[in-house]
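seq:
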Amino acid sequence: MILRRARSPEAPKMTRSVVSNLLVNNIRVSPQVEIPDWLTSTLASDATGGEGVLEGLAPIRPGQHYAGYASTVTVAEGDNQQLREAAVRGPRPGRVLVVGGSPTSQRAVMGDLVATFLQNQGFRAVVVDGRVRDVAELRTLNLQVWCRGVSPVASTKEGGGRL
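struct:
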């Protein structure tokens, strides 16, 4: 997962994420900056020289796009305990949750129960650098989801990772 961070402590503290098709680009910007609706992942990728693009992620529903402030969580391989903790905390600072740490696991780190809870807590989009399950149910939610793949195998709940 490629996430760019601000280089100096003077940089604004909020993070704005563009999530459209296959792009997750965390860039620290002023909260007053708005991302226009016409900005696609292709244009953003071209503007950044491809930096910030997570290859291999796909939306569970074609045509999804979302732009918003992001919260991040790192999970242990195949474990979703920290994802569940992020759901309890709610969207801080943003309505996009970026989940890293499980790109090669065969276990799904999110299914319909956790996704429904995330939606109810105010999240509008989730980017999972790993697998999800219950895709038919996820597609019925008002939550946009990008993931690396699908697996019916449940995650563990042992902990590890960080918010």
